[in-house]
């Protein structure tokens, strides 16, 4: 297949057209709308799979396709102001496309089960389609402006999906909170784009890489800050907002007010993934701005802090929400410690197992129906013993929990362990990195603990709400409930990502086996980056043997043999620590909630102050509401209102009224005297005056007319003679 | 030899007589007689000028046209007069003043 914009476009346009069509027909043909949505995303998935496997065939880390067209060109003289739109597909994009469309397809299918009895069944799919197409367009974007456009579009979609049950208490506020919190990051992101534009003169990724490679950012300062740092920080603030990192993490837990499949979409495939994807795309900028330490700290703090909050949550979706924040923290930590490949791998593996976890949670919640309040139950204290009722959901959730907890042979172990290994490596090099590394390992312990706590509380032990348990139907296999769970839980196996279990890859090139993920995903090599409009497709023009040399884990990545040995050694230590930590987390959870040998209440009373702090999410909401909003924004708001009402309205608007009154009097005088009296009435009067004179001529006496004719003719001839 | 000025003098006399009749008489038929005199003076002018200046037949031809037109005009005029008389039972020119406001 020839890759051009028009052949790639269906990936985005299929869900988008589904959105457009469904927006009109959803009220009357709900079932048809649902079918269109699902069919379009599945079609899009096949397209994306085609792209993905084509890229896998080429199997070269620095192969990419870059096609643009001019959106507008307002260049004036030597001042360039030209916007391109287009596609930029490298291995990362192709993998993202495959993951997003795949996970989104399964979520669509699951939604036909979960949302079927909802009164706004069709509308949910309208939003899902738009959401997915926005994410796909963002992934394909070749420049930051178009990333920003779809970024905001996703913000809107998450706003409408979180507020989907708008009649429910708090849903409206939650959607507003999500939108406004991410806006804070978006403002910085836009600033960053402008800073980049001011230096590079373009916002295309290719141009940015090239400019950084050529050192265009060197020696440029804005307000005493290096411009690369400023730009990188601003773009990273966008990631902080969108991916719910440390200062702006408050919106994500509230996002669970939306329907559970939409939580799966937001937490896994689309919304939060976009933030990490952006910071990976802009990784050379972060590196050029020396921001990696800062990023690692943000990631470490987020990974650990969110994990601690998740320890005390009782709502099953809240546990998952905080685990999402925590795992996003790991990805950001991975960006910070320079493990580009592992951070992206964790993005993919996390998307799969988190989507599966949310869908399983949705399956559990949907089955538990309280007959008194007519609401679904998502409080874990009312669950317990559900393993016998829902064996298939239990199995799927168990697989994902093993993955997220970092148990060997599962995907979460493969990716998280490599991030932590790199963090450890950085810490050994540089003392500054000890804090994020330790936070990362601590977070891994907590993750294993709280995920298994959730499992034990939900599926094991005695049912704590007997009536609810008895009312729950036994799970029967149904395709739209269990098929997505089955597929997603299969893909939690680490072998899909790391090659085979023996560490050898699936992909065989020139007699040697390679791990596809580690070989394909690489930091953009800035020195080799030249802006090629397009590259021919296939092996011949792109000698892959050369690019294999750069792969970090398969070769020595340009390191000396001794150094490479050291790297391997540290990674082995990191993996060992990870395994020990993960199993001890599981052990503690089992001791507390399965065997019940240790009483959790004892630990709660021991750390009662911390427990309260955790239950209040470290008082971040209070800080933002009481601190920023009530102390800062509300007075500002009041001041602006005063300026508006007291000064602008009173003097400018009312004063303008007085000016108008004077002008009105003058205009009235002018109208009455000049226009009406002189012009209008004057015309009439002059007509009447001349009428009196001229009417005497028309006497009705023919001979008088005749005399007049004679006289006029005579006079005429006489004047001619003179 | 009769000169051009003699013709013109007679033509002028006829013309003035016609004008005088048109202005002085109130009888419509008399006024039409005045018109005939004016037309005849014009015809005489044509004939005289063509005889003394060009010495060809164009002026005569024009005179013939004028006679024909005069006949036609007289027919139309008399028809109007008859119609007028049927309505007003008079042919006094001052009675034909309906257009005066």
Explain the overall architecture.
- In chain A, helix 1 packs antiparallel against helix 2, helix 3 runs antiparallel to helix 10 and helix 13 runs antiparallel to helix 14.
- With 722 residues, chain A is mainly alpha-helical.
- In chain A, a hairpin with a 4-residue loop joins strand 5 and strand 6.
- The longest helix of chain A has 76 residues.
- The relative contact order of chain A is 0.08.
- Chain A folds into 3 domains: 268 residues, no CATH class; 262 residues, no CATH class; 99 residues.
- In chain A, the strands form 4 sheets. Chain A has a two-stranded antiparallel ribbon with strand order 1-2.
- About 4% of the residues of chain A have low confidence.
- With 101 residues, chain B is mainly alpha-helical.
- Chain B has one domain: Helix Hairpins.
- Helix content of chain B is 78%, strand content 0%.
- Chain B has 3 helices and no strands.
- The radius of gyration of chain B is 17 Å and the shape is elongated.
- Classes of the chains: A mainly alpha (722), B mainly alpha (101).
- Chains A and B meet through helix 28 of A and helix 1 of B.
Helix/strand layout:
The complex is a heterodimer of chains A (722) and B (101).
Chain A: H1 5-25, H2 30-58, E1 65-73, E2 82-89, H3 91-114, H4 121-140, H5 144-162, H6 171-200, H7 205-213, E3 221-222, E4 225-226, H8 227-242, H9 251-254, H10 260-269, H11 271-281, H12 283-288, H13 292-310, H14 316-336, H15 340-367, E5 369-370, E6 375-376, H16 391-405, H17 411-429, H18 434-459, H19 466-471, H20 479-490, H21 495-498, E7 507-509, E8 512-514, H22 516-520, H23 544-548, H24 561-594, H25 600-606, H26 608-615, H27 620-695, H28 702-721
Antiparallel strand pairs in A: 1-2, 3-4, 5-6, 7-8
Helix pairs in contact in A: 1-2, 1-4, 2-3, 2-4, 3-4, 3-10, 3-15, 3-20, 4-5, 5-6, 6-8, 8-11, 10-11, 10-15, 11-14, 11-15, 13-14, 13-18, 14-15, 14-17, 14-18, 15-16, 15-17, 15-20, 16-18, 16-20, 17-18, 17-24, 18-24
Chain B: H1 4-24, H2 28-54, H3 58-88
